Amino acid sequence: MKLKNMITTFIAGVFLFTGAAYAGDVDILLNKLVEKNILTKEEAKGLSDEMKKDGEKEKKVTAGAVKEGFELPKWIKNTEVKGDVRIRYQSQDTDNDGRVSRDRGRIRARLGVVSKPNDKWEGAIGLATGGSDPRSTNQTLENTFQTPDIRLDYAYAKYSPIKSISIMAGKIANPIWGTKDLLWDTDIYPDGLAATLNFKVKDNLEIFATPAYFLLDEYSSSKSDPTMTVLQSGIKTNINKNIDLKFAAAYYNFSDMEGNDFSEHSSNSNTRISETNNWLYEYDGITLDGEIAFKLSEKIKLVESLSLFGQYVNSDADANNKGFLYGFSFGDKSIKAAKDWQVKVNYRKLEKDAWADFLPDSDFYSGATDVKGMEYELIIGLAKNITLGLDYYHAKPILGNTTRKEGLFQADLVVKF
Q1: What does the pLDDT read at residue 16?
Q2: What average pLDDT is seen over the chain?
Q3: The predicted structure's pLDDT at residue 9
Q4: 78 and 63 in a common domain
């Protein structure tokens, strides 16, 4: 009798946890128990009927919960996890520097979470490989399988009172628009506060503005903490169905830059005071960015679009205070699938005191100022969210040792998810 009770309890538990989907399997089990004379036909039928009644009750409870609005919280539904992995081969060779060419394997891994608890608020956290350098998330493969560091890449809160206005604070994605990386390395996530304002004037014309306030450093023994204030404004327009134009101008105001050395992340290429090795200038200035894109005729199936772009900067330093970049790209407008491709070529020149030397692209002559040269880039789509990129930089100093030319080649495999 004890055995029969144990078997009955076990079968009831199986049905309870597996549900109606396995009801047929339970009936087969009951028939086998009848054949073995463990249960009578009447006992098996009674047990089957009772379990089916319990199953119907469970269905009604579940259906009622759904009908009453039982569901996952909205913020969970509005949470997105994203990231990418990049595998890189890099070769770097600088003439007359007393060193051999350097070949490296490097990786980058990034993982981020973006959540919207409601229609107006957004919060995000991102992690990435790399060290303390704000211009690099690369991890060189070295030191006998050493485990790489993972650091906070970004963390911000964003409030959008209306569709056309957003305010964000924290360690944020750079809100300043630029056609290329003459002025800002794309790995930099500035610390501070910014707003983006976008207004559609008419169907083919949009104006935008971006005020921002960034914290550059904090000194416990001084009130003179260096900061950066930016105001950028611009337009975006469709001249016709085949031509798009975007243009922006910005003013940068740096505070308390003079007299600081910025030794942690400076490229040491700006002018310094010889006695103290501190900076001589503030680097206030104006910048211009522009791009015009042409959608080519459908008859030219190989090339979807062609664009021309440029950047310009002029600081308030007494001399060597200008910089510019111009270039073109052609191919597919964006890389979304296999066989998509894009070529980019640009020439740049950044004078010694045109710009603060802790901001430019660190791949172009280690992010220094007082340099000029070319960049050639090819990106090929291997599959959806998978690309192969080939990038080559050729640069040299403008005023310094002009024989120290540098060639840098990078081959990148990127997988996004």
Answers
A1: 47
A2: 89
A3: 58
A4: no
- 293-297: which pairs have CB atoms within 8 A and are 24 or more residues apart? 293/243, 293/244, 293/245, 293/333, 294/242, 294/243, 295/241, 295/242, 295/243, 295/244, 295/333, 296/242
Q: How many structural domains are present in the chain?
A: 2
Residue segments in the chain with a per-residue pLDDT below the cut of 50: 16-17, 20-22
Domain CATH code at residue 305: 2.40.160.10
Dist. CA 401–CA 417, nearest whole Å: 44
* Same domain for 80 and 47: no
Predicted structure pTM score? 0.81
Nearest CA-CA partner of 176 in 313, 289, 309:
289
| pLDDT tens per residue, range 205-244 | 999 999 999 999 988 777 688 999 999 999 999 999 999 9
Taking the C-alpha atoms of residue 404 and residue 74, their distance in angstroms, rounded to an integer, is 57
CA distances from 130 to 180, 193, 277, 301 (A): 22, 24, 28, 41
Same domain? 40 vs 189: no
Domain end position, chosen among 10, 41, 67: 67
Pair 238, 359 in one domain: yes
- Residue 42 CA, chain-centre distance (Å), reads 67
Domain end among 49, 67, 85: 67
Closest CA to 153 of 194, 116, 124: 124
Q: What is the pLDDT of residue 42?
A: 81
Domain residues for 304?
74-416
User: Is residue 23 domain-shared with residue 97, that is, in the same domain?
Assistant: no
Instruction: State residue 65's pLDDT score.
Output: 53
| Euclidean distance between CA atoms 413 and 27, whole angstroms | 55
Are residues 202 and 61 part of one domain? no
